[in-house]
Amino acid sequence: MENTEKGTFITLFYLVFNTISSIVIVLLNKWVYKYVGFPNLTLTFLHFIVTFCGLVLCQKCNVFTVKSVPLKDMIPLAFAFCGFVVFTNLSLQNNTVGTYQVAKVMTTPCIIVIQIFFYNKDFPLRVKLTLIPITLGVFMNFYYDIQFNILGTIYATLGVIVTSLYQVLVSQKQHELQMNAMQLLYYQAPLSALILLMIIPVFEPISTTITIHWTAEVVGLVASSCITAFFVNLSIYWIIGNTSPLTYNMVGHIKFCLTVLGGVLLFKEPFHVNQGVGIILTVFGVTAYAHVKAGSALGQGSYYHHLGCTKKSSKIGLLFQSPP
Questions:
Q1: Are 134 and 108 in contact (CB under 8 A)?
Q2: What does the angle CA 169 – CA 171 – CA 175 come to, to the nearest 5 degrees?
Q3: pLDDT tens digit string along 217-233?
Q4: 180 near 311, Cβ under 8 Å?
Q5: What is the pLDDT of residues 273-301, one digit of tens each?
């Protein structure tokens, strides 16, 4: 009885910790972009470095074991990882928090389209039907976004496409190399940091970073962003490995709504009533999709069967919280 209560408490702690940290990282990154003017690529580079250092510490504490693989197998994944994080960060930088959050949801329909056209996979009609409210809700949010801008839409679109390709690639590599997501991320983070180190001087001259007024507050904000990003991933890994996929998805819906609310309250972002309708449609579609996939997974042995992933290893690399 005591062990059960202890297990419940630990699970609740991780769920609450992940929810809070996931909301904080999005709002924190938005604050750093909007009020500090910190360069996007440089912040992403720092996230990768801190993540790798955190993974080294986890490995030393036996949280996971490092698996030796040829670096050539990791390079395409590292490039995709860079594109995924950079474009989603640019989407956050150039869109409202609400629009950024809603746009990310389009990853699910995009992955399904990729698998249908490029992998000849088929999905039940009930799965395809859940994509209708998701797509309609995202369209309504963009259409009625008072702060709509073309550049932000381009970055959001590129973010969805690259994220979808990255997730499919990760699932393939996990299956092919028999590695969990932390083992993959152990290689991805430093390789991606090296890639960014080579392109940062081109897109973000060193003068951009030097001209920032480096107060203790700015240093604290950037450091907090990097550390929070790592802890979000760590808690996601634990949740997926120790709770049901449905639990993970329902927590995701809560984070989605609270993050949008946080953006409206913290950054005074204008919010059209039809955007609210769009968000409700999106959440409804995502919830329906989660329930349909959970039901079909009972006969398949894995909730993430459609991605070729195991439950425990499916998402830490996919949801690298820079942003979530």
A1: yes
A2: 115
A3: 999 999 999 999 999 88
A4: no
A5: 888 898 889 888 888 887 787 666 554 44
